[in-house]
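Give me the 3D structure for TRAP transporter permease.
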Amino acid sequence: MGVSLRGRFDAVDEWPRGKLALWTAVSVLGVGLTLYTFYYAYSLALVRVRHSNLFLGVGLCVFYLHATLEHRYGTEDATAYRDRDRLAPGGAIGRTRAALGSYDWLLTLAFAFASLAVAAYVEANFDRLLNDAVVLGFTSTDYLVGAAIVAIVTDATRRAYGWAITSVVFVAIAYAMAGPSLPGFLGHTGMDWQEVARYGAIGLSGTYGFILGVGTTWVAVFIMFAGMAKTYGALDYILDVGREFGNELRTGVVQVAVVSSMAMGSITGSAAANTATTGTFTIPMMKNQGVRDDFAAAIESVASSGGQMMPPVMGVAAFIMADILQVSYVEVIRAALLPALLFYFSVGVAVQFVVLRFGWTVERTGRFDRGVLRSGAHFAVPFAVLIYTLVVLRLTPLSAGLYTSATLVATMYLRNLVVDGPSAGTLVDTTLDTFRGFRDGAIDMAPLIGVLAAMGIIISMLTQTGLANKVSVRMVGLAGGVFVAVLVMAMLLSILFGLGMPTPAAYILVVILVAPGLVEIGLPEITAHLFVFYFAMLSAITPPVAVAVAVGARIAGSNFMRTGKQALRIGAAGFLIPFAFVTNPSLIAWSFPATPLHLAVVMVGVVALVAATTAYDGRSELGLVGRGIYLLLAAVALYAPMTTVQVGAALLALVGLGMAYLDRDLPVGAPARSR
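Predicted structure for TRAP transporter permease (675 residues):
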């Protein structure tokens, strides 16, 4: 490894004192927060609410101190949210700085200390707030601290994710306070500011609800593991292997970009952050291959958005879903697996058709450097431990994350001692890498803390006022109770509520407001949750917001609207797949032989659907008639009520697609001509 302490920490002895002090504070608190999380996973020493409060205080302090470091000194520290802030619309710390002026860093620093102060107050009064205050009443100081907590987490959300979700917090609080003045079904008895402070935070609800509890345990341990893996070089390894696989594929690096974005998207929990992270590498690679800039950005945006549907992490939504449904984590990822694979199958086929249609293929060199594959083989060890502990032993995600993280650290020490040689320098360098991983894992988790706490406030306001139930009842009423109409309305509402939001926040909002209406018309709970989550996820590529498309377009230097149009074309099948797993329940509730049969039929239907949306069947461009035929066959294969009819439509589509490939009047890889 051979990197000196001075070089590893960017010549910290040359930094100004203020920068050094902030960097030291972020590093110490970040490492401490990660170690504390692992200790809690091992011991479960505190009740979860108490643990959440400590995590909230320290985590928000890390977030604000790092924001101050960014703002004041422009640190070059590589973090997940620095790239997102630089590229995502409305979410940049840089935009906040521009809006509030050059002295905003002082306010940011004040929020850092305030985060610790309010958490310390709750910790010192925890037993009273949990038990006595509910009966004897809260003090004036309690209410003030509760209001301060609401203000702090709202501000943290604004700084990390912009105004999209922050405005929802404001609207929820305003709705709670303005209840008596609202007309019709929106009206309610109303809440004063003390009740907002109580139900929003100091009553150990709202901010301290189940969402933050899941976030500071199951979510935190995996985000920290991902940060450590990234520091150890896992992301670089994925991209290096992808480049090598590109030499073996006619589509070059394009399909590699899809797979790598899928892998990273399952972990990050943010379509914009994933697009910024992997897109920085994959979009230029695709453009160098000849892929048009708007298509390169669209491919990356769609692939990055869908990764949040992919088990085992599902952008941390899997953990929240298991907690809400009160089912095992394994049951959630089993139910989500086939819909996620269908989505990526549709994206892969769409990308293949687009690349072949426009002739963006490459010559297969056949040169695959197996040394690159072997260079990161050690990463398979912690991944195997993760799968074994979750699927075989069926441990909680918290315990599985702990054992996986410990395995990762042990593996890296063993690997470095074997590869670099047993020496004091190897041990020192590996230890420095490990502590950097602890720090970066905490920094990666820090922006998510505020938004999860803010979502708890939103849910508390909506449930205390009864709006959540009213929305579901109205949704079913407006659709007239018609099954398909309710599904369509749920789709539209899920996309609307998901616009501009990170995946966990979008899922939480739609599952509270929309999913109950689907359950009311007879849909199984887990199917309803996956249905609304799917569309909340797809809001990242849906105009007019389309945050993932905005990030990808900025990296590619392409027009936003044109990129959005291509993203919708590539991801079009994704908007119809949720209806397929509603009409084919065996895709979620596995059974034999129904599941493999319906999976095969739906896959053929997806290919036919992609042929219709891309106007290409793998060999030639399609006219309106050809597209219409494929669209009709796809609809029957996906949604017909009788299996025999579905199979018949799938066979006809398969015959048509097979005939297209037997038409050999064009050389493979040449640009398509119209029939």
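Confidence is low (pLDDT under 50) at residues 1-10, 76-97, 664-670. Let me know if you want a second pass.
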